[in-house]
Amino acid sequence: MDLRLRGKKVLITGGSKGIGLAIAKQFAAEGCNIALVSRSNEELQNVKVLLESQYKVQVEVLAIDLTQKNTAKVLAEHFPQSDVLINNAGAIPAGNIEEIDDEKWRQAWDLKIFGYINNTREFFKLMKVRGNGVIINIIGIGGERLDANYIAGSVGNAALIAMTKALGAVSIDSGVRILGVNPGPVSTERLEYLARKKAIVQFGDENRWVEFQKEMPLSRAAKTTEVAPTVVFLASDLCSYTSGTVINIDGGITSRNAKR
């Protein structure tokens, strides 16, 4: 299927690994030119070489700490012609209201919640002037499957879901589509890291981390390559009548309320 994306300019935050990297590869396979943002210049340079050599597309990179103020404006100045923005950078720690203190809460939200909001604001203004563009927020099922032991993430993701739906409902009138994707557990370095920490506490053996996947759909976490194609399809003109929508990619976890 030709998604008619060839030549589009796609900006991806947190694009050097995990879901962001899988999304970058999928867009590159469609002939899109890619701009990647993350903290590590070394990782970005490695991905740049990979994408350019494998897909023969143009790749720009920018190493920046997105928790700092005014970074959304910096991104807009560096990549003003982006046709697609993928907000993906950010990880919120697990913990209940007593465990996640003010500093941890604010640090996590500065990167993900306010990062997404500020990026959306700046790029929506640019896209609105042009009369076209797509913004896709990679959020997470914690915003629908509320969990007091993931309090900062549940509250933050719920806010991003609300923003995506509220703004996306009217942005389409200006030619700009805003959508969200809620991944469930996805097989990434971060997932393994967190599962190993949990296995030490629960079993006294970090190598038993895979046991947490037994109760997941298909007895495993999703692959990054099972998330990326949906993101790319949503960004295409084949979805031109879709905005203000959030798609769950979780194997049905949210609907059946399975254990995390």
SSE inventory with pairings:
Elements: E1 9-13, H1 18-29, E2 33-38, H2 41-55, E3 59-63, H3 71-78, E4 84-87, H4 102-111, H5 113-130, E5 133-138, H6 151-171, E6 176-183, H7 189-203, H8 228-235, E7 246-249, H9 253-256
Parallel strand pairs: 1-2, 1-4, 2-3, 4-5, 5-6, 6-7
Helix pairs in contact: 1-8, 3-5, 4-5, 5-6
How is this structure best described in words?
The chain has 260 residues and is of the alpha/beta class. It contains nine helices and seven strands, in the order βαβαβαβααβαβααβα. Strands 3-2-1-4-5-6-7 form a seven-stranded parallel β-sheet, with helices on both faces. Helix 3 (71-78) runs parallel beside helix 5 (113-130).
Features:
260 residues; alpha/beta; seven-stranded parallel beta sheet; 7 strands; 43% helix
Concise account of the structure shown:
This protein is 43% helix and 15% strand. The protein has 260 residues and is of the alpha/beta class. It starts with 8 loop residues before the first strand and ends with a helix.
Distance between the termini: 34 Å
Counting DSSP H or I runs of 4 or more residues, the number of helices is 9
Structural class: alpha/beta
Shape: globular
Overall radius of gyration: 18 Å
Main sheet characteristics = 7 strands, parallel
Please list the strands of the largest sheet in the order they lie side by side.
3-2-1-4-5-6-7
Average pLDDT reading: 94
Poorly predicted residue ranges: none
The secondary-structure element order is EHEHEHEHHEHEHHEH
Approximately how much helix is present in the residues? 40-55%
Number of strands: 7
Task: Estimate the strand proportion.
Answer: 5-15%
